[in-house]
Design a protein that fits this description.
alpha+beta, Ubiquitin-like (UB roll), Threonyl-tRNA Synthetase, Chain A, domain 2, 3 domains, five-stranded parallel β-sheet, 15 helices, globular
């Protein structure tokens, strides 16, 4: 490759060359036929760039279409912008709040008078489709900070003004569509014509914006009602109202005013109150419930939650006994394999289900059982004389990714089981139009924990994350509505604390690694937060499971 050459790597790994100094948009039109869906961005030397970027000498370019993770993010962000635009065209005085994921889509609320109706949602969708048909440009530009603040003041975007108070530059990047100017903290498509596939679903008091996934960018997944998940999000919104914190800008203001310690204490008290309520429910059915099952995705805080629930049950005179699913692994040579022919330890068949169910039945019937111990060095199950007999009214407590799956405990009648789903469901937004992805919060927790206690780098954790996510989709998320109750382990203040732990780890990831894009995105996201010292985080906090000094773990 000469100094003036740009190398383009196509999806089939074919390489073509072009001269430097051309825009990515111009080149993308020439290679679009090699991609099944529209190109929306590119990686240049492992850095994410929008299509208006001009190529430099000795660049390596890989274009991103809608079937890539970053391409799907750009598509969803642009659809959100389109939704805000269409709503503002129809209801100029309304305020759009992008809340959280729901039913394979994005739940949004539109504050207007009179309240949102099904007919309003139909009108918004029709306006969105008109705008797509018109193929209006979505313009990216840098404008003076003072001008951006004036624009946002005119639109009553007080949340964006709060966030920009701490902006360190004289200019800010904004996107414009028609008469709407906004910031959504990331790249957009170059025009509305690309946004062909979407649907709106009326979900009082708001709506769900539905769109394709990166796995299947041609199809909008069927809408799946998630009543329990929606209710736990509503509960989390009430918690943010109690704290008076709905966006990062508000949190930053309160921290700088010296209210950080109070935010920590109130957040932790809300957790403790909810855990106590769950313990009271179980206690009210103590003659019926024999097994307490706790499930949740990676880094949701299951282990600390289980310990805190145990303490609240002890307060109520109930002494639950924990059983580890790890001790019921099948011998390693019998472990199922994944699509790459590697051992799949997250598969439910990696557990000896017949033996586990036999032991459960015998235990709740008052018999004595010798509990096995799995030897992870030899890959064999061993018996070391660990006998257990449950006392009358003493339930078992089981924590693991398969806890919601009926196959795990199929020998036990459903009314004798109490299932709890726990996850870190982020209720805080960067601003009203930019949500914080729940998966990003859990990934940051895991990066810090893996580094603190497992000597893993941020690079290693991010590299493994897609595999972890696939396991969650297969084993956990599809079953979450099976839970009797849900618990949100997210803490309103936590990202302000996690920032100082995560930033140095993320900054170590070199640009030469594919994971650099995710690291850069997380760093930009964390830069919005004012740091909060961890000294006031109590030792029994779920957050201590990740940052250390937990009273429940020997470190």
């Amino acid at each position: 490759m000469t100094n003036n050459t740009v190398k383009i790597i196509l999806p089939d790994q074919t390489v073509i060359n072009t001269e430097a100094g051309r825009s990515l948009l111009e080149i993308s039109k020439e290679v679009q036929e090699h991609y099944p869906t529209p190109i929306v961005a590119a990686m240049i030397n492992n850095k994410l760039k929008d299509l208006m970027h001009t190529t430099q000498e000795r660049s390596v370019v890989e274009f991103l279409d809608l079937g890539t993770k970053e391409g799907a993010r750009i598509y969803q962000r642009s659809l959100t912008f389109l939704l805000i635009y269409a709503t503002k065209q129809l209801f100029p005085e309304s305020q759009v709040a992008v809340e959280h994921s729901l039913g394979k889509g994005l739940y949004c609320e539109i504050k207007k008078k009179p309240a949102l109706t099904a007919a309003d949602v139909e009108a918004i969708e029709e306006k969105m489709r008109e705008t797509v048909a018109a193929d209006l440009p979505i313009e990216k530009k840098r404008i003076p900070l003072k001008e951006a603040l004036e624009i946002f003041a005119a639109e009553n975007f007080d949340d964006k003004i709060r966030l920009l108070k701490r902006w360190q530059e004289d200019e800010v990047t904004v996107f414009s569509l028609g008469n709407l100017t906004d910031t959504l903290h990331g790249y957009m498509t170059i025009s509305t014509g690309i946004l062909q596939r979407f649907a709106l679903h009326y979900h009082p008091p708001g709506l769900v914006l539905r769109f394709p996934t990166e796995e299947d960018p041609f199809t909008i997944p069927p809408y799946v009602e998630q009543t329990k998940l929606f209710e736990i999000f509503r509960e989390s919104e009430k918690w943010t109202e109690i704290l008076g914190i709905d966006t990062v800008g508000v949190l930053n203001d309160l921290i700088e005013e010296g209210q950080g310690p109070d935010i920590i204490r109130i957040s932790e008290a809300l957790h403790e109150k909810k855990i106590a309520q769950i313990a009271d429910i179980i206690s009210s059915r103590k003659d019926e419930i024999r097994i307490i099952l706790i499930a949740g995705p990676s880094s949701s805080g299951k282990t600390t939650f289980a310990q805190r629930l145990r303490i609240q049950l002890l307060v109520n005179g109930i002494r639950p006994y924990p059983i580890s699913l790890d001790d019921y692994f099948v011998d390693r040579d019998k472990t199922p394999v994944d699509e790459s022919n590697n051992p799949d330890f997250e598969h439910i068949e990696a557990i000896d289900l017949p033996l586990f169910n036999e032991h459960l039945m015998r235990l709740i019937n008052g018999e004595t059982v010798e509990i096995p111990t799995f030897n992870f060095t030899t890959g064999q199950r061993e018996y070391r004389g660990n006998s257990l007999t449950l006392k009358p009214g003493q339930p078992l407590i089981i924590e693991g990714i398969h806890a919601l799956n009926e196959r795990l405990t199929e020998a036990i009648p459903r009314n004798q089981k109490y299932k709890i789903y726990i996850s870190a469901l982020t209720a805080l937004n960067v601003d009203r139009h930019t949500r914080i992805h729940t998966t990003d919060t859990r990934l940051l927790r895991r990066i810090i924990r893996d580094n603190q206690f497992r000597s893993h780098s941020a690079l290693e954790t991010i590299r493994r994350w897609p595999s972890v996510r696939r396991g969650e989709e297969r084993n956990i998320f599809r079953l979450q509505e099976e839970a009797d109750i849900m618990f949100n382990s997210y803490l309103a203040y936590e990202l302000a604390v996690l920032k100082d732990y995560a930033v140095p780890l993320l900054e170590k990831i070199p640009q030469s690694e594919p994971e650099y894009i995710a690291a850069k995105r997380l760093l930009l996201f964390l830069s919005s937060f004012v740091s909060l010292n961890a000294s006031d985080v109590p030792s029994n906090s779920i957050l201590r499971e990740f940052i250390g000094d937990s009273c429940f773990f020997q470190e």
